[in-house]
Amino acid sequence: MKKSDPIENFISLLSKIPGLGPRSARRATLFLLARKEFLLLPLYSALKNLVEDVSLCDTCGNISVGQTCKICMDPKRDHNIICVVEDVSDLWAIERAGAFKGVFHVLGGTLSAMDSIGPAEINISLLERRVSTQDNFQELILALNATLDGQTTSHYIADLFNGKNVKVTSLAKGVPIGGELDYLDEGTISAALHSRKDF
Ligand code: ZN
């Protein structure tokens, strides 16, 4: 069997990364090959470490070095408040804001009728178990995207805990900080009106 060209093979793999088309992948490959010692070899070992050491936290589904992620192991965080997010990138966004001191649950996707993704395909059963086994559980915050699938998933999760004495909240939707009403779409304005609060 003919061995595939390592350069073409690398370019074709690299071009699968979102934001990197074949053209950028070719440029990046040449850039790396021209810097074998300083960049290609360190990248090689960094990739090896990613493959060998990083997996999913067995509590929350966050990416983690080791079985349990740093957030789940942190005794200073409030483990009785769980914020549910679709993806690790959403968890990172909330962490960057630095305003949340609870813990997370990463679903790894949303329910989607179009893509035939049901509850078994995302990390929901573990969430049910986490909430039901916690003695002093306080609040489940649904921080899913304001897309159709995100909202379907939020309703599904809220229904799961309906009547189980669990407080379920969701992020407020509406006018962004620094936003001008004139520039917002109708959906955002009506969501902002619905989630208005006392001044
Ligand atoms: Zn975790």
- The total strand number stands at 6
Overall spatial form: globular
Segments where pLDDT lies below 50 for 5+ residues? none
Q: How large is the radius of gyration?
A: 21 Å
Question: SSE order in H/E notation?
Answer: HHHEEHEHEHEHEH
* Straight-line distance between termini: 72 Å
Query: What percent strand?
Result: 5-15%
Strand order of the largest sheet: 4-3-5-6
Structural class: alpha/beta
Major sheet size, sense and barrel closure:
4 strands, parallel
Helix content: 40-55%
* Overall average pLDDT: 92
Ligand set: zinc ion
Number of helices: 8
Would you kindly provide a written description of the structure presented here, covering whatever features stand out?
- The protein is α/β, with parallel strands linked by helices and 199 residues long.
- The protein is built from eight helices and six strands.
- The strands form two sheets. It has a four-stranded parallel β-sheet. It has a two-stranded antiparallel sheet with strand order 1-2.
- Strand 3, helix 5 and strand 4 form a beta-alpha-beta unit.
- Bound molecules: zinc ion.
Sequence-ordered SSE layout with sheet pairings:
Elements: H1 6-14, H2 22-33, H3 36-53, E1 54-56, E2 63-65, H4 70-73, E3 78-85, H5 88-97, E4 102-106, H6 125-133, E5 139-142, H7 148-160, E6 167-170, H8 186-194
Parallel strand pairs: 3-4, 3-5, 5-6
Antiparallel strand pairs: 1-2
Helix pairs in contact: 1-2
